[in-house]
Each structure stands twice: as structure tokens, then as C-alpha cells.
């Protein structure tokens, strides 16, 4: 059965954590990354050929047993730091892409005008889809949702990330800034005994950024107004004026929508 877990933060690996191969007497060797083992073997030897890689990175282990034993500690730096870096790259790219920033800015303004302060969530189903956005831009941007800060879910991102995001949503000026919340779904293989087991996890990062300079800022609505219902009175009187009254009603609706960021 598929296990579903969510994780937002992960410790960054140390400078030596990504080193897979070391040198021993100028010969390429492999070292088991399980600290309690540390076995070394020549890469070209029979023992070296038996080494097993981590399912998600280049860490190598002398056996499946060592890989399983190290997983609970290794997972914190293996998957989450790599995808966390990808989240930060997405955020940086959004800042740099004028069309993408304008698109998010308009959504942030519409969301604020309708629901109050909150964050724009950008969700990618896979790391590959996030990388595609980095290379191809706006047309491959993830799914966008505006979320009020009151509706943010701590179990979706972890307590530390949740606290940071709520703090941002409570301390920004919606007339000049927006809060962005990037989330990437990762499916990884868990090295356990028995049948193969897969985990779906969410890795998230958030940031506060300036609205696009090209955005048209609509007039502010009253703080207590969340839903606007637009209607018109039944058309009565001179039949020759019905068309004129309809056109006036439509013009008023369009005017109200433009004020709220819809074009």
C-alpha cells in the first residue's frame, strides 16, 4: 500500500555528503556511506560491483542491509535538500520572468480583493514539471491557488514551514507585495525489506516578493466585504429602452470586475 507523507524542510548536506568515490593509493574505490560500516572496496572488484546506490541520489552502500539501516537519517538530506533547492530555483525564476511575475501578481491581487491576506500556492506534481518550468517558462507553471492564511494546513507542510508562512501572510503589504508558496510532490522508493514501498511527499518553500510593476492596482474594497453579488432590476417600461438598460448593466458588471483585477 502506498504511504503518504509530507515534509517541508530538510537539513542541508555537509560539503562532503555528495562525494561518492574517494581515492585510495590513486585507485578508484567505493566507500559504504553507512557510518557504522564504512567498508571500502575497489570499484572494479567483485565486492565493488556488489555496492548498492541510494534510490534517490549517488550515495553508495556495500549492501542492502546498510542502505536500509542508514535510510532514516539519510532521507533528511537526500531528497528534501535537493528538492528544496529546486523550490528556491522556481521562486528565483518567477522573480526574474516578467510575464510569470505579472500573472502571479494579478492572481494575488484578485485573491486579496476577494478573500483578504493570504498566499499564492504554486504546486508541481513532479520535480520534472518544476524543471520544465525553469527551462520553458510561464506555459509550464504549476497549478496556482490563492489560499487565505486562515486556510493554510500545517500537516501539509510541517510546523516550521507553516509558522514561517503564516508570519509572512500576516506581515506584508498586499498593495506592493505578494506571498508565494511553492510545493513539489516527490515519489520515492523506500529501502525496506519485503515488497517495494513508495512514498509520496511534499517539499515546500515560501517567499515574499514585490508585485509586478506592470500590474494595474484596483481600488480597495471594504475590509468586511468578501463576496460581491451583482444583479439588476427587472426591465420594465418603454420596450425601446430595454437594450439600453441591458448594455448599462453589462457595463457596470465589467467595471466592477476590472476594479477587482479581472480583465
From TrEMBL:
GO terms for molecular function: zinc ion binding. Residues 1-10 have a biased composition (Basic and acidic residues). The keyword Zinc applies. InterPro entries: Ajm-1, Apical_junction, Znf_MYND. The keyword Ribonucleoprotein does not apply. Residues 79-191 form the Apical junction molecule ajm1 alpha/beta domain. Residues 1-22 are annotated as: Disordered. Residues 36-78 form the MYND-type domain. One of its GO terms (cellular component) is apical junction complex. Residues 11-22 have a biased composition (Polar residues). GO terms for biological process: cell-cell junction organization. Keywords: Metal-binding, Zinc, Zinc-finger. This is MYND-type domain-containing protein. It comes from Henosepilachna vigintioctopunctata.
Amino acid at each position: 500500500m502506498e504511504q503518504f507523507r509530507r515534509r517541508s524542510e530538510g537539513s542541508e548536506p555537509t560539503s562532503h555528503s555528495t562525494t561518492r568515490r574517494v581515492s585510495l593509493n590513486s585507485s578508484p574505490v567505493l566507500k559504504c556511506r553507512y557510518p557504522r560500516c564504512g567498508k571500502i572496496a575497489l570499484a572494479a572488484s567483485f565486492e565493488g560491483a556488489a555496492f548498492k546506490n541510494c534510490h534517490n541520489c549517488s550515495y553508495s552502500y556495500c549492501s542492502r542491509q546498510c542502505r536500509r539501516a542508514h535510510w532514516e537519517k539519510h532521507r533528511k538530506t537526500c531528497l528534501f535538500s535537493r528538492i528544496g533547492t529546486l523550490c528556491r530555483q522556481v521562486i528565483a525564476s518567477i522573480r526574474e520572468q516578467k510575464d510569470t511575475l505579472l500573472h502571479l501578481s494579478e492572481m494575488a491581487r484578485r485573491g486579496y480583493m476577494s478573500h483578504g491576506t493570504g498566499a499564492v500556492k504554486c504546486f508541481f506534481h513532479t520535480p520534472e514539471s518544476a524543471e520544465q518550468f525553469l527551462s520553458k517558462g510561464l506555459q509550464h507553471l504549476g497549478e496556482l491557488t490563492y489560499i487565505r492564511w486562515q486556510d493554510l494546513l500545517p500537516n501539509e507542510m510541517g510546523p516550521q514551514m507553516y509558522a514561517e508562512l503564516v508570519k509572512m501572510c500576516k506581515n506584508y503589504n498586499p498593495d506592493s507585495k505578494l506571498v508565494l508558496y511553492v510545493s513539489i510532490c516527490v515519489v520515492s522508493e523506500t529501502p525496506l525489506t519485503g515488497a517495494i514501498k513508495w512514498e509520496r511527499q511534499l517539499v515546500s518553500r515560501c517567499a515574499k516578493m514585490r508585485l509586478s510593476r506592470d500590474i494595474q492596482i484596483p481600488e480597495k474594497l471594504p475590509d468586511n466585504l468578501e463576496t460581491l453579488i451583482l444583479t439588476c432590476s427587472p426591465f420594465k417600461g418603454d420596450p425601446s429602452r430595454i437594450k439600453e438598460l441591458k448594455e448599462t448593466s453589462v457595463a457596470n458588471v465589467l467595471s466592477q470586475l476590472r476594479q477587482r483585477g479581472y480583465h
